[in-house]
């Protein structure tokens, strides 16, 4: 009991720094049963019931954004697909709870260990001296020291001022209808300027539009006429160029479920700049497919730097290090990150290895494996151009990627040795125009693909496109055939 009491005190005095909703943020747990979001000096703070007795206070810090309207629009998009951000907070709270339990157990055991170490004779002597003035003073000192060590310092600070909360509906006015999910949200009433109210009302409207569109698309996916895989087949969902559009993640997952996909390929450009503030996009796609058997990915030309790959690997995704690895359905797969980097425009530059060098290394790895009798069945890249030479040499069955934001293929390529391979480019899963996709609706048609594997080889591809008006276009299942099969 002592250990649990100590752990509880340590727990409520803990905090963690995380990347949340495109901000640096601090997460502090408590037992209030409420979630409080401290947004900063401009936008109002928010409060909502927690799903458990454990509550949490989130303090948002700095963010990379050009304007306040842009920030509120980003909030609306993230709120429509919150699973990834919820998972971030849950991991932080879980880690603090575990750390508190370990510390509580250690501190709770200290009195028992000391009692045992004293020995029976010394314990009797201490008990005998307790009723005296000297014994009482010593016991008091021990209690004060223990309290200073265990009790969080913030418990000694003055009580916070009384806050006046109002319902979100009252804050934005009766003219703005709220979705059911937002009816329990409270707003700190101190922020009451007309501009703030308009921004919040606009965010609520964007949230509702995005939630309605993407929820309907996810529901409609269950009725798509997709090919049913055979018992000896494995289906993999291919996504690419999400560009922060977290709304499409639930749609992509719904299509995967409808098509029997149990694994996922991510061909990159999950972000627009590769910066830490875009962690919300990575958290979202990871949450959408967290229970899939396999998750393989490469970084795209917009996933600048090392953050995207590092964060996705921490979330359980598999990246490549220049050698073929085991993939879905006993297939052998090879991949490489895009060597290019670009900003939010349509320009690009080369960093590190050049595109030509990457192509050479990829071709060499694939053809060496083929000569060794361990044929590469799939090359996953951001841009299929990197696999053209491997296809021309007859060293790979299928090269898949994205980058162009337009579907292309499957296209058959006959290699120099008579081997047949295929090239396939999936459209932008985020419905992105250039590198921007986040918003309450698609900017252009969004595409995914279902790739079927049998006996270790890709044997078919089915493309699925969601139009900006919510209509689905489903291509016929395209069979991949090989002369030697």
Q: Top keywords for this entry?
A:
alpha/beta; Purple Acid Phosphatase, chain A, domain 2; 22 strands
Topology overview:
Layout: H1 2-12, E1 16-20, E2 23-30, E3 34-38, E4 46-49, E5 55-63, H2 68-80, H3 83-129, H4 133-150, E6 165-167, H5 168-172, E7 186-188, H6 194-221, E8 233-239, H7 247-258, E9 261-266, H8 279-288, E10 294-297, H9 307-314, E11 325-326, E12 332-335, E13 340-341, E14 349-350, H10 355-371, E15 376-380, H11 388-392, E16 396-401, E17 408-414, E18 420-425, E19 446-454, E20 457-466, E21 472-474, E22 478-479
Parallel strand pairs: 3-5, 8-9, 9-10, 12-15, 15-16, 16-18
Antiparallel strand pairs: 1-2, 2-5, 3-4, 4-7, 6-7, 8-19, 11-12, 13-14, 17-18, 19-20, 20-21, 20-22
């Amino acid at each position: 009991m002592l250990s649990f009491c100590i752990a509880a005190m340590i727990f409520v005095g803990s905090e963690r720094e995380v990347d949340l909703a495109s901000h640096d943020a601090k997460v502090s747990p408590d037992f209030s049963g409420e979630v409080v979001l401290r947004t900063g000096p401009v936008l109002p703070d928010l409060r909502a019931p927690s799903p458990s007795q454990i509550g949490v206070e989130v303090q948002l810090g700095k963010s990379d954004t050009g304007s306040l309207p842009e920030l509120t629009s980003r909030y609306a998009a993230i709120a429509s697909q919150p699973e990834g951000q919820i998972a971030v907070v849950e991991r932080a709270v879980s880690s603090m709870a575990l750390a508190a339990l370990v510390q509580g157990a250690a501190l709770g055991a200290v009195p028992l260990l000391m009692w045992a170490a004293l020995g029976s004779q010394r314990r009797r002597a201490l008990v005998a001296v307790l009723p005296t003035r000297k014994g009482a003073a010593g016991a008091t000192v021990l209690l004060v020291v223990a309290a200073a060590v265990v009790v969080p310092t913030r418990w000694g600070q003055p009580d916070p001022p009384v806050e006046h909360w109002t319902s979100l509906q009252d804050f934005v006015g009766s003219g703005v209808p709220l979705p059911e999910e937002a009816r329990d949200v409270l707003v700190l009433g101190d922020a009451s300027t007309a501009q703030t109210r308009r921004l919040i009302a606009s965010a609520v409207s964007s949230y509702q539009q995005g939630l309605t569109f993407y929820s309907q698309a996810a529901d409609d996916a269950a009725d798509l006429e997709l090919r049913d895989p055979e018992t000896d087949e494995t289906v993999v969902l291919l996504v690419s160029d999400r560009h922060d559009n977290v709304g499409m993640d639930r749609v992509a997952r719904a299509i995967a479920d409808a098509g029997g996909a149990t694994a996922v390929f991510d061909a990159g450009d999950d972000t627009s700049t590769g910066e830490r503030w875009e962690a919300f996009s990575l958290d979202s796609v990871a949450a959408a497919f967290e229970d899939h058997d396999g998750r393989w990915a490469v970084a795209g030309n917009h996933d600048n730097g090392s953050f995207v790959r590092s964060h996705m690997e921490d979330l359980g995704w598999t990246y490549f290090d220049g050698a073929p690895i085991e993939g879905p359905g006993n297939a052998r797969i090879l991949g490489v990150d895009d060597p290019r980097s670009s900003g939010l425009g349509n320009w690009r530059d080369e960093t590190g290895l050049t595109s030509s060098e990457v192509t050479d290394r990829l071709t060499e790895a694939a053809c060496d494996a083929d000569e060794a009798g361990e044929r590469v069945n799939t090359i996953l890249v951001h841009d299929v151009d990197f696999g053209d030479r491997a296809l021309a040499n007859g060293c790979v069955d299928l090269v898949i990627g994205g980058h162009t934001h337009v579907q292309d293929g499957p296209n058959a390529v006959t290699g120099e040795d008579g081997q047949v391979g295929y090239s396939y480019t999936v459209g932008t899963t985020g419905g992105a125009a250039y590198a921007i996709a986040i918003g309450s609706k698609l900017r252009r048609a969004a595409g995914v693909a279902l790739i079927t594997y049998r006996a270790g080889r890709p044997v078919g591809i089915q493309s699925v496109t969601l139009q900006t008006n919510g209509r689905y276009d489903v291509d016929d299942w395209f069979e991949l055939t090989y002369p030697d099969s």
